[in-house]
Amino acid sequence: MKVLIAEDEFYNRWVLSKMMASYGNCIETDNGEEAVQTFCWACRKKEPYDLVLLDIMMPALNGFEVLERIRAFEKESGIENLQKTKIVMLTSLEEPEYIDQALNEYGADSYLTKPVQLETLRQVLTDLGFFPQELDMQQEAV
Questions:
Q1: Domain spanning 2-127 has what CATH number?
Q2: Which pLDDT value is given to residue 71?
């Protein structure tokens, strides 16, 4: 699995990378603009990401703007529903309107609130159709 982690906090990126290391190759970005560029570049090279873990509150572009641009790029590129990259929004905001906006308005596949727990992340990945290997790390929170 190829994973893009878009998170502006260094420690959160580090923990998410550790959590995802057994699942596959992780690439990290620390702002929204870089996340969009990295995503599009990989798609153009025919090496798309399987999963994007996307923080909502980031510099340059926020997570909603990133998600909107990724989905627009997929549409323009002819990437159909089942071929779309799975995108999980990450945030400390538990407001129902943010969840609804992420999932229904912008097209996120799932939503996790911080601190992200390993078991919760595993469950989301399983729900999205990924079959994770056992991870040999202690449960750390982001």
A1: 3.40.50.2300
A2: 96
- The count of other CB atoms within 10 Å of the CB of residue 129 is 10
Q: Which pLDDT band, with edges at 50, 70 and 90, does 137 fall under?
A: very low
**Percent of the chain whose pLDDT exceeds 90:** 69
Write the pLDDT tens digit of every residue in 86-102: 999 998 877 777 788 88
Query: Who contacts 45 (Cβ-Cβ below 8 Å, separation ≥6)?
Result: none
Residue listed under structure tokens 């989905």: 71
- Can you tell me whether residue 130 is helix, strand or coil? coil
Long-range residue pairs from 46-49, CB within 8 A, at least 24 positions apart, any chain: 47/2, 48/2, 48/79, 48/85, 49/2, 49/3, 49/4, 49/85
pTM: 0.89
d(CA 54, CA 64) in angstroms, rounded, equals 9
Q: How many CA atoms lie within 13 A of 73 on its CB side?
A: 18
Q: In sequence order, what E strands does the chain have?
A: 2-6, 25-29, 51-55, 86-91, 110-113
What tokens appear for 95 in the block?
A: 């407001």
